[in-house]
Write a sequence for this structure.
């Protein structure tokens, strides 16, 4: 039992506080502990859970009988994405400048020099919430998600 | 510790020809280690040559990153199929 709860029960036993007050104080303590533990647990669980990035393309019912029924099923480990992104920090400055220039030509204002390891971690963590689900008029389905 | 994949399955099928290959990476790892031991003296000679250019640090980082990428490949699966062609790559 933690120290605060013990104190509240002692105060109740000594009749310093009423049962209602004790109940309120205990529930307030419970919520505080519960939320922080819950958030930490859910965060860790999300990290542990998301292991693969999946890309699936499934042909629609119109293609069931044969012609041009392309199927794609790709599973990329998240660790591979993380390792690949670390590789960008090893690019020589000249190559980074070239990449930045090429991106700017395409209208993307993104400087690779500003990409820090913390940002990469954040980006990969954010990927765990990614979900793309596209259904074409032919019934073909494209799904991108993290599992 | 991350371990590199033990087996790689590559299956490619075209309209006429195709192949199905199981690559035992666990057998290639001792071979790679043997090659590394043979090449080690050359690396030791190269280190003082490239020391002033600062290339050594970058080379070590690249070596580490490549090893990490190889280890992270465990679980990768690429499966693409069309009416006649099929590409399947999997690392176990």
């Amino acid at each position: 039992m933690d120290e605060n709860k013990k104190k509240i029960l002692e105060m109740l036993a000594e009749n310093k506080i009423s049962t209602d007050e004790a109940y309120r104080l205990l529930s307030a303590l419970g919520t505080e502990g519960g939320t922080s533990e819950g958030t930490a647990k859910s965060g860790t669980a999300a990290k542990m859970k998301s292991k693969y990035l999946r890309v699936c393309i499934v042909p629609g019912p119109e293609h069931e009988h044969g012609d041009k029924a392309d199927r794609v099923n790709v599973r990329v480990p998240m660790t591979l994405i993380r390792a690949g992104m670390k590789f960008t920090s090893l690019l020589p400055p000249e190559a980074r400048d070239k990449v930045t220039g090429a991106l700017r030509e395409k209208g993307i204002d993104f400087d690779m020099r500003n990409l820090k390891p913390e940002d990469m971690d954040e980006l990969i963590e954010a990927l765990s919430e990614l979900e793309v689900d596209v259904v074409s008029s032919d019934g073909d389905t494209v799904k991108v998600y993290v599992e | 510790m991350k371990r590199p994949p033990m087996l790689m399955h590559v299956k490619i099928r075209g309209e006429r020809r195709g192949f199905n290959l199981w690559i035992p990476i666990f057998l290639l790892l001792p071979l790679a280690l043997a090659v590394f031991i043979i090449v080690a003296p050359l690396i030791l000679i190269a280190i003082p040559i490239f020391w002033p250019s600062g290339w050594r640090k970058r080379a070590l980082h690249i070596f580490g990153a490549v090893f990490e990428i190889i280890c992270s490949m465990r679980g990768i699966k690429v499966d693409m199929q069309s009416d006649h062609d099929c590409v399947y790559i999997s690392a176990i």
